[in-house]
Amino acid sequence: MPFPVRLAGCAALLIAMGSTACAPMKTHQGYVIDKELVDSVQPGIDNRESVMQTLGRPTLTSQFNQGEWYYVSRESRNFGYSDPKVREQTTIRVRFDAAGNVAAVDRMNQDLIASVDPYGKTTPTLGRKRSFFSDLFGNIGTVGAPGTGGGGAPGGSGQ
């Protein structure tokens, strides 16, 4: 096979591989929202059972009581190996009263998304800062010392 044909083949392969990394990838996560089904849930008419039959299991429930159900839907998009960027997020919150009837149905968008950035490579803690060597040799002299609860027979007499 002549050299220019091999070179052209390699160039075509590299271009094909490079162009696939630039193609946008769209993803959907969570609940698939059907507007008609969500609109059919009415405050004062529906209860927990009818909401479960209409919308299905919620994505999240409230932590402290069963007074709120959340249905979360998220559309993301990214190029190649980059981090996905949220294009659209819809959260439907169904609130219940004490009797289990629907009190309100709220729709929220991506304005409520919280961005949490980790701080450095370590977790900040309260207390003193210790080095590797103080962790390694910090117990020397404290084992069996009075008041540390270590060593000896029950009662601390050692006999």
Describe the structure.
The chain has 159 residues and is α+β, with helices and mostly antiparallel strands. The protein has a domain at 24-114: 2-Layer Sandwich (Beta-lactamase Inhibitory Protein, Chain:B, domain 1). The chain has helices spanning 3-21, 35-40, 48-55, 132-137, and strands spanning 24-30, 60-61, 68-79, 85-96, 102-108. Strands 1, 2, 3, 4 and 5 form a five-stranded antiparallel sheet that branches. It is flat and about 70 Å long.
Itemize the secondary structure elements and their pairings.
Blueprint (H helix, E strand, L loop, with lengths): L2 H19 L2 E7 L4 H6 L7 H8 L4 E2 L6 E12 L5 E12 L5 E7 L23 H6 L22
Antiparallel strand pairs: 1-3, 2-3, 3-4, 4-5
Supply the key terms.
159 residues; alpha+beta; Beta-lactamase Inhibitory Protein, Chain:B, domain 1; 5-stranded antiparallel beta sheet; 4 helices; 25% helix; 25% strand; flat
